[in-house]
Amino acid sequence: MDINKINSDEYSLADFSAYKGDDLFDVREPFWAFMQDAIAKKYMVYGNPISTAPRSEFQVYDRYLDKDRNFLNFCSYNYLGYSCHPDVIKTVQDTVGKYGTGAVSAPLLSGYYDLSKQLEESIARFKGKEAAVVFPTGYGANLGVLSCLLKPGDVAVMDILSHASIYDGARLAGADVKVFSHNNAEHLDTVLKNLKNPRRAIVCIEGIYSMDGDLVNLPDIVAVCKKYGTRILLDEAHATLIFGKNGRGVAEHFGLEDEIDLTIGTFSKSFGAIGGFVTGEQKIISYIRMFARAYVFSCAMAPHTAAGILKVLDLYEHDKSNRDQLWENTHYMLNALKEVGLDTGQTESQVIPVIVGHDHRLREISKRIHEKGLYTGVVTYPAVSNKRTRLRLSMSSNHTKEQMDTCLTIIKEAFDAVK
User: Fold this and answer.
1) DSSP result, 93-125
2) 146 in a domain, yes or no?
């Protein structure tokens, strides 16, 4: 690469991910030149500071205008609006006054508060499992659980579209990684059949796949795993509080909760907070608590965060109307996108992809919707392939019909303008 002649239209992030020079830092010069050219062409729509709460409309700093602007927010995971719920905010404020701003210690030392214990007991009870461990992040939950359970020579068998944290947890453990075609139980059967010991393997799947919004083919996958005696880890990050009669997730939706060995969840989606958890049988959860490095060596969740999540659980138990509104908004938006001929893939959830295609087309489209005041997920490599890039709409119970109509108009105009 000639750093004096780099044209960002001729490169993507994939080119720099694989870049290798004589010096470890050699990548910095060509990547810097790439980024500066992308900024000059207004392709850089990531990392803009947000200055208000993650409501359906918020203020975002626009680096191209050098000022804050109002944007429609179709990017936040605040699916049920709990991040801004007045009762949750009041609970958090009161807790800060009692406990201070953070746990300031690892959970096995002085970072484990009464609220931490209460949250773990409440989450286990909510999920219908014996026990739970709460992690400071959802990423850390997958990383910690898989890296402590798997050993070199063991196998993590995962859906090819699994989250990066699942891949990273298996790699950190030194385990072998095998993938099966997305949601393909027949291919999973072939993979497990060829393992030396399927009982030293764990199948990793997601309730809702975060880039496509589709549901796991859980009945068929469970049947294959039972055939070989293979354990199952189910990540319900985007499904908790959304699917199932009681909001326990896709496993409850399919009536298969008792078939899942470990369930991962996050508090950074529908709960409107931060953190992760794992639930399961008490004895294995006890082992995870002592050996998951992402838990043992991380500072614990702040007490006020735990208090806010507990308040969300209480509110949700007594009133699920915001979930009903989320589904109404999701169906409205999804149908509207389809009616104007846009490709929304196989989504069945509040996560709605709008498939763009090649990375270069995504850049032009993202620039246009940014100028029009629409904030969405702009998803490219490494989250998806360069030829399957997309906008990702995260629906909320707080979106109004007017906001959804405006979103649709902006997206349709951008797609029409960039053939």
Assistant:
1) HHHHHHH-S---S-TTTT---HHHHHHHHHHHH
2) yes
